[in-house]
Amino acid sequence: MAGLESVRWNDEARSKILSDADNVLRDAVSAVAREFTGTSWEDAFRALNERLKERFIDYEPGPDVRKYAEAIAAGDYT
Hints:
Shape: elongated
Number of domains: 1
Strand content: under 5%
Order of helices and strands: HHH
């Protein structure tokens, strides 16, 4: 019998999961950009985290979220 470490999503499912996660991130960045362009990156960062933490199990903000928050504040996604 195989050990539990062999239990994993197949490649097609993994790809779909990652694509769905990218879409959630993209939607959050788009929504926050409409509301927080030109504000501080901290405000955009806070808003992104509020949206994302409800969509992911065990969500933890990382450097990518800050990068997008800074771009929102700079007006890169208008």
